[in-house]
Design brief:
Layout: H1 6-73
Subcellular location: Cytoplasm
Protein name: Centrosomin N-terminal motif 1 domain-containing protein
InterPro entries: Cnn_1N
Length: 74
């Protein structure tokens, strides 16, 4: 409960305005980074999914070939 002079009050208000501005700016850049990271992350996941599907198809084809070879050897 210390009484502040008008000059002190204005200094506190100015300091708070700067802090609010800095926080808004930080939020803006973090939001931009999140959006870009999210899109990049999704692109990366999509590419990984495609690669895994290709590997799965190749593995299934190889399994069929090996099963045929096993039948031929019996």
């Amino acid at each position: 409960g210390k009484d502040m002079t008008l000059k002190e009050q204005n200094a506190v208000i100015d300091k708070l305005h700067k802090q609010v501005f800095d926080l808004k700016l930080r939020c803006f850049f973090l939001d931009q980074k999140l959006q870009s990271t999210s899109e990049e992350g999704m692109d990366s996941l999509r590419q990984e999914n495609v690669d895994l599907k290709v590997q799965l198809a190749g593995a299934k084809k190889e399994i069929k070939i090996l099963k045929r070879q096993i039948k031929e050897l019996k």
